[in-house]
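Whiteboard transcription, Tuesday session. T.W. wrote the C-alpha cells on the left side:
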C-alpha cells in the first residue's frame, strides 16, 4: 500500500497501479457477485463490475420500475437478473445495495443465504454500526466488508465511462475466510474506484451522515438559500442572485477549486475578492461550527440514523417526501436555476 502524506498525516491508500484490474479479476475469478438493489449505487457498481470483466448478477424486485431499468441496461432475466432471493442464493459475494431502510426489512430473507465463506458487502456503515436499531447482525462465518464510493452512483458510472475513477473508502468488519482484505480491495477496484482509503464501518457512517447533512448538501443548500434571500430582499433580480450564489460557483469556481484547491482560488481572484474572502471566511466558520458540532453529536448518538429509519418506515413516507422535494423544486431559487441552466450555450 502506498504511504501518502496528507498535509502532515501519513495514511496508507490502495492505488490502481499497485492493485491493477488484472489482479482484481484474478482474486474474483471464482466469485459470483450478486448486486442486490438497482437504485442509485446498484447500477453504477453492477455495470462497472460487468465492464471490468467480473462475474456479476443483479437481484431486484420484479414488477418494479428498477427491474425495468435493469432490463433496459442490458441485464437479462434468468441469466444475469433475478429476484432478490435467487440472486442471494447464487451470489458468493452479496452486495447489499438496497436503501438503508430496505436493508432492515429484507435482512431476515438475505441472512438465510449467508452460508459459510460468502462475503456480505455494504456501501455504508449504517446497518452494522447501528445494529441495535437495524437488527443487522451477520453470521460469524462470513466476511463482512465495505466499499463506500465517495459520491453518487451516477458519478461512479459517469466517471468510469470517462476513464476516471471516484474515490472510495474500504473497511473490514469481519474476516472469516482470511480473504476479506483481498476480496474487498478487488471489489473496490472492480466497481471503478480511483483509489481506496481505509476506514471502519463506524467512521464511514459518522463521516458520511455528517457530510451529506453538512457541506455536501444540507449546509450548502442553507448557505445558498441565505445568500439568495438576502440579495433578493435587497432588490437584486432572480437571475443576478442565482448567478452570484450558485451558477458562478458550480460553473466557474468549483471546477478550478477541484483542479487546484481553494488556496489557489484565493491566490487567483481579484485583490478585492481576496481581501474580502480572507476577512469573512473565519466569521462563516465560527458561525457554522456550532451547528456542525451539534450535527456530529446527533449522528454519534444515533439520532440521525433513528430519524431516517422512522421516517422511512411510515406508510405515508413517499407522499411526505414528495411534498418536501416539491417545496425545494418550486422555490424561487431553483426555479431561477432551471432557467439559468437552459440559457447555458451548451444546453440542448
Ligand atoms: N445513492 C448514492 O449515490 C449512495 C452513495 C454512497 C453510498 N450509498 C449507499 O448505498 C446503499 C444503496 O443506496 P441507494 O441510494 O442506491 O439506494 P436506493 O434508495 O436507490 O434503493 C436501492 C434499491 O432498494 C430497493 N428497495 C428499497 N426498499 C426495498 C424493500 N423493502 N424491498 C426490496 N427492495 C427495496 C429499491 O427498489 C431500489 O432498487 C445505501 O446503503 C446507501 O447509503 C448510496
Ligand atoms: C451521494 C452521497 C450524498 O455521498 C451519499 O452519501 C448518499 O447517501 O446518497
Ligand atoms: Mg450517505
Ligand atoms: Mg456519501
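and on the right, the sequence the group agreed on:
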Amino acid at each position: 500500500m502506498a504511504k501518502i502524506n496528507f498535509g502532515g498525516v501519513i495514511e496508507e491508500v490502495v492505488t490502481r497501479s499497485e492493485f491493477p484490474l488484472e489482479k482484481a479479476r484474478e482474486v474474483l475469478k471464482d466469485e459470483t457477485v450478486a448486486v442486490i438493489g438497482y437504485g442509485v449505487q446498484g447500477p453504477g457498481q453492477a455495470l462497472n463490475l460487468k465492464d471490468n470483466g467480473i462475474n456479476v448478477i443483479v437481484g431486484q424486485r420484479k414488477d418494479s420500475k428498477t427491474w425495468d431499468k435493469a432490463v433496459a441496461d442490458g441485464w437479462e432475466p434468468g441469466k444475469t437478473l433475478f429476484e432478490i432471493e435467487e440472486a442471494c442464493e447464487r451470489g458468493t459475494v452479496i452486495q447489499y445495495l438496497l436503501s438503508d431502510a430496505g436493508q432492515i426489512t429484507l435482512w431476515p430473507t438475505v441472512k438465510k443465504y449467508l452460508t459459510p465463506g460468502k462475503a456480505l458487502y455494504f456501501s455504508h456503515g449504517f446497518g452494522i454500526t447501528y445494529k441495535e436499531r437495524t437488527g443487522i447482525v451477520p453470521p460469524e462465518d462470513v466476511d463482512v466488508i465495505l466499499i463506500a464510493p465517495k459520491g453518487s452512483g451516477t458519478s461512479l458510472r459517469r466517471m468510469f465511462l470517462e476513464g476516471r475513477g471516484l474515490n472510495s473508502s474500504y473497511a473490514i468488519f469481519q474476516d472469516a475466510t482470511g480473504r476479506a482484505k483481498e476480496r474487498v480491495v478487488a471489489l473496490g477496484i472492480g466497481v471503478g474506484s480511483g483509489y481506496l482509503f481505509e476506514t471502519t464501518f463506524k467512521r464511514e457512517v459518522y463521516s458520511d451522515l455528517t457530510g451529506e447533512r453538512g457541506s455536501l448538501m444540507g449546509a450548502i443548500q442553507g448557505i445558498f438559500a441565505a445568500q439568495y434571500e438576502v440579495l433578493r430582499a435587497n432588490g437584486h433580480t432572480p437571475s443576478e442572485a442565482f448567478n452570484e450564489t450558485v451558477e458562478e460557483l458550480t460553473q466557474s469556481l468549483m471546477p478550478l477549486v477541484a483542479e487546484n484547491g481553494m488556496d489557489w482560488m484565493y491566490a487567483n481572484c481579484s485583490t478585492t475578492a481576496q481581501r474580502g474572502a480572507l476577512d469573512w471566511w473565519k466569521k462563516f466558520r465560527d458561525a457554522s461550527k456550532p451547528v456542525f458540532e451539534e450535527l456530529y453529536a446527533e449522528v454519534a448518538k444515533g439520532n440521525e440514523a433513528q430519524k431516517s429509519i422512522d421516517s422511512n418506515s411510515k406508510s405515508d413516507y413517499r407522499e411526505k417526501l414528495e411534498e418536501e422535494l416539491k417545496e425545494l423544486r418550486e422555490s424561487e431559487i431553483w426555479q431561477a436555476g432551471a432557467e439559468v441552466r437552459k440559457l447555458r450555450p451548451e444546453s440542448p
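Someone added at the bottom: The two ends are 45 Å apart (CA to CA).
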